[in-house]
Amino acid sequence: TFCEICFGAGDERQFLRYHRKFSALPFLDTPQKGHMEIARMGFGLRSKGYKPFIADLTIALTAIVHETTLLTDDRDFIPYQKLFGLRLA
Questions:
Q1: Distance, C-alpha 49 to centroid of its chain
Q2: How close are the terminal C-alpha atoms of the chain, in Å?
C-alpha cells in the first residue's frame, strides 16, 4: 500500500510528504511464498470477469495472511472480500 500511495504522487513535493507521513506506520511483510497464491487469486478473479492488478493482489494477500483488516475506499477490493474473505473497513 505504501508503494502504491507514493507511486501516485503528483510531484516530488507530494511524494516526499507521502513518504514522511506513511513511512512511520508499521509495515506488514509480504508472504515470501505468496507468488503462487497471488497467481491463484488473480486467476480466480479473472475467471469470474474481474481485472485484478498485481499490486492489489499483493496487498490483499498480505492482509489475509496477517489476518488484518484493510482500510480502503477502493471498490476494487470488494471481490477479494467476497471470494477470499478479505476483511475491509
A1: 19
A2: 15
13-67: pLDDT as tens digits: 999 999 999 888 888 887 777 888 899 999 999 999 999 998 999 999 999 999 9
- For 8, the grid coordinates are 501516485
Q: What is the CA radius of gyration of the chain?
A: 14
Predicted confidence at residue 29, as pLDDT, reads 83
- Contact (CB, 8 A) for 79 and 49: no
- Please return the burial class of 60, using the count of CB atoms within 10 Å of its CB with bins 0-12, 13-18 and 19+: buried
Q: Cβ distance 65 to 41 under 8 Å? A: no
Residue type (1 letter), 63: A
